[in-house]
């Protein structure tokens, strides 16, 4: 319970829209929260999320690269992670959005542990 409150606060502190559940199958609640913002605030929130996502993705890649695997395995894991997040895709699918939200949430949890 306390961790959820701290995580909620961390989302707000980073300028992100907190979400009720990372494993929501439909993103309706999140989309409704975004629609409640002005267009300028929506743009700013999206930009903030992309910035934090890039930071979180680089954090995950660094964790993979510091693991005890061979360089081939490390590169394969990095490529799989990027594909799962839709890095380089022109059109993101819902699974890409879900994976990105999961990575950002995991990153913020790691930040809270520091």
Task: Kindly describe this structure.
The chain is mainly alpha-helical and 114 residues long. Helices cover 72% and strands 0% of the residues. The chain has helices at residues 2-13, 28-35, 39-65, 71-85, 94-113. α1 crosses α5 (94-113). It is globular. The two termini are 19 Å apart. The model has no long low-confidence stretch (mean pLDDT 86).
List the helices and strands and how they pair.
Blueprint: H1 2-13, H2 28-35, H3 39-65, H4 71-85, H5 94-113
Helix pairs in contact: 1-5, 3-4, 3-5
Largest sheet: none
Mean pLDDT: 86
Strand content: under 5%
| Spans of at least 5 consecutive residues with low confidence | none
Features:
114 residues, mainly alpha, 5 helices, 72% helix, globular
Q: What is shown here, in short?
A:
This protein has 114 residues and is mostly helical.
């Amino acid at each position: 319970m306390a961790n959820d409150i701290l995580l909620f606060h961390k989302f707000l502190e980073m300028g992100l829209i907190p979400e009720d559940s990372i494993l929501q199958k439909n993103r309706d609640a999140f989309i409704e929260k975004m629609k409640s913002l002005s267009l300028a605030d929506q743009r700013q929130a999206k930009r903030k999320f992309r910035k934090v996502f890039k930071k979180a993705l680089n954090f995950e890649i660094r964790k993979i690269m510091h693991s005890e695997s061979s360089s081939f395995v490390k590169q394969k894991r990095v490529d799989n992670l990027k594909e799962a997040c839709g890095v380089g895709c022109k059109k993101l699918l819902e699974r890409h959005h879900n994976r990105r939200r999961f990575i950002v949430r995991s990153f913020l949890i790691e930040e809270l542990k520091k």
